[in-house]
Amino acid sequence: MLRIFICFFLMGCSVFKMDKWSTSRAKDIKAKDYRELTALDYIDHLKSFEKIYTQQYRKKIVKLGPRHKRYLNQAINKISNNNELFFRNDEKAVFYFINSKVPFHFSLPGKKFFFSTALIEKYIKNEAMLYCLLAYEYIRSEKNIYKKTIIIPTGTLESKKILSLLRLDTADKVEIHKWAYYLLKRVGVDSDMYLTWLQVKNRNSLDFSAQLGDIQSISREESLYKAFVIEYEKSDERKNINRHRGSSKRFYAFLSELKR
To answer: What letter does residue 61 receive in the DSSP assignment?
Structure first.
């Protein structure tokens, strides 16, 4: 009986001391010492995904030669130089090509672009379509169009996971498509090619399921973009000058490099 009493007494003392410490410690904690996370904090957090992802997939990253890196950077520069008021980020673009049988693409803040080899080899059939793909991801990266989500770092980041984190609502994607339409017109890419790119994803929605999440959403994307183009071009008296006639030898050399 005495032992039981002593145990309860010691337990009571420990609780008392803890409560006393917590109360006194709480007085030292001031709310003003903390600040709410901002949108820029989240963007900085997203930037850290580059290192985590590339470390995990380092053995699957296809190394491009200097010539092909220059080609891709010149494509990005062509988009930005023809749209100087829209693109203000002077950072150099970085491209990663992941050896994967699953077609996907995504970007991170700071002009970090990621594409799977399956995407380029199977679905990017000409240079104009490559510009459509680059324009979409360039807009996202430049304007930091990413949904704010609570993310708990675990040290690993699989492709399927990062694609799910970076998904956007259909309405947001359609707004990016509209911006891409205006930007690509200045580069000389026909609006029909951007529609073709969306139709390719729609026809192969099961292949792009990891990218899309809801495979039905791409049909609505295509429909809304088509309606926008029809309405805009109906009221636009200027002719759409298409300067992209065929694909360059550098484009085909770039494709051959990835297929090796």
So the answer is: B
% of the chain at pLDDT higher than 90: 65
Q: Is 232 exposed, middle or buried (0-12, 13-18, 19+ CB in 10 A)?
A: middle
- The single-letter DSSP state of residue 94 is E
Three-state secondary structure call for residue 26:
helix
Tokens of 148: 């704010």
Six token digits for residue 55: 């470390």
CA angle 254, 257, 259 (to 5 degrees): 115
User: Packing angle between helix 170-187 and helix 191-203, nearest 10 degrees?
Assistant: 140
90-118 pLDDT, tens digit per residue, is 889 999 999 999 999 999 999 999 999 99
pTM, full prediction: 0.83
- Tokens encoding 140: 């996202």
Q: Which amino acid is at 210?
A: A
| Residue 103: exposure state from Cβ atoms within 10 A (0-12, 13-18, ≥19) | buried
The amino acid at 166 = L
Q: How far apart are CA 85 and CA 90, in angstroms?
A: 12
